[in-house]
């Protein structure tokens, strides 16, 4: 029964992506026409995006705007112009669960029919963006954040990333 539910959800995402190139998670529709991925940002939300926990990637083989939680130095990082830029101080990856299963496929692409980028989730669009999950004061309200969690703090109006030890904020 659980498999049928998972298949139904996956099919609904594929159909939605094919026709509208917009996906809402946890709600019925996206906010605005310029959104490719949107989350249910109701008051009291404490759920964010969890970035992939990896041991880094070689420079030059990635797309600008790639985000990871690097377990080699316990930092949240963004890739830009052949350089990994740290978005956090060194945190703690002791609770990260390693995924040792073989990966297949190129992941999910939203916004376009195809992409040259290789990622778990690739958002491709010339005129749409992702709206991050919005959380009021995540350092106070998210009780058990996972290393690599990312959201938009509605109180400080900043990007918030959790490095496994503390929240880091970017304007």
Structure, explained:
It is a single chain. This protein has 171 residues and is an alpha/beta fold. It has one domain. 13% of the residues lie in helices and 30% in strands. It has 2 helices and 14 strands, in the order αβββββββββββαβββ. It has helices spanning 2-20, 138-141; strands at 23-25, 35-39, 49-50, 53-54, 66-70, 75-80, 83-86, 108-110, 121-123, 129-130, 134-135, 149-153, 158-162, 167-170. Strands 3, 11, 12, 13 and 14 form a 5-stranded mixed β-sheet that branches. A 4-stranded mixed β-sheet has the order 4-5-6-7, with no helix packed on it. A 3-stranded parallel β-sheet has the order 1-2-10. The longest helix is centred in the first third of the chain and has 19 residues, at 2-20.
Helix/strand/pairing class, anyone? alpha/beta
Order of helices and strands: HEEEEEEEEEEEHEEE
**Tally of individual helices:** 2
| Beta-strand residue fraction | 25-35%
Average pLDDT level = 82
**Count of the separate structural domains:** 1
Intertermini distance: 44 Å
Major sheet description: 5 strands, mixed
The shape, in one word, is: globular
Radius of gyration: 16 Å
Low-confidence stretches: 15-20
The total strand number stands at: 14
The percentage helix is: 10-25%
Compose a concise summary of this entry.
The protein is α/β, with parallel strands linked by helices and 171 residues long.
Descriptors:
171 residues; alpha/beta; five-stranded mixed beta sheet; 30% strand; globular
Present the secondary structure layout.
Blueprint: H1 2-20, E1 23-25, E2 35-39, E3 49-50, E4 53-54, E5 66-70, E6 75-80, E7 83-86, E8 108-110, E9 121-123, E10 129-130, E11 134-135, H2 138-141, E12 149-153, E13 158-162, E14 167-170
Parallel strand pairs: 1-2, 2-10, 4-5, 8-9, 11-12
Antiparallel strand pairs: 3-12, 5-6, 6-7, 12-13, 13-14
């Amino acid at each position: 029964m659980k498999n049928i539910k998972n298949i139904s959800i996956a099919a609904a995402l594929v159909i939605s992506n094919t026709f509208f190139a917009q996906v809402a998670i946890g709600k019925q529709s996206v906010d605005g026409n310029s959104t490719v991925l949107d989350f249910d940002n109701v008051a009291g939300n404490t759920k964010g995006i969890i970035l992939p926990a990896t041991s880094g990637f070689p420079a030059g083989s990635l797309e600008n705007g790639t985000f990871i939680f690097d377990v080699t130095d316990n930092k949240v990082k963004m890739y830009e112009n052949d350089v990994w830029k740290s978005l956090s101080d060194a945190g703690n990856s002791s609770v990260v669960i390693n995924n040792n299963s073989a990966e297949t496929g190129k992941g999910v692409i939203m916004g376009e029919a195809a992409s040259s980028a290789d990622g778990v989730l690739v958002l491709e669009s010339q005129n749409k963006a992702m709206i991050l999950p919005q959380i009021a004061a995540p350092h106070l309200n998210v009780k058990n954040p996972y290393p690599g969690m990312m959201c938009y703090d509605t109180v400080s109006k900043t990007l918030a990333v959790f490095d496994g030890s503390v929240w880091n904020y970017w304007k």
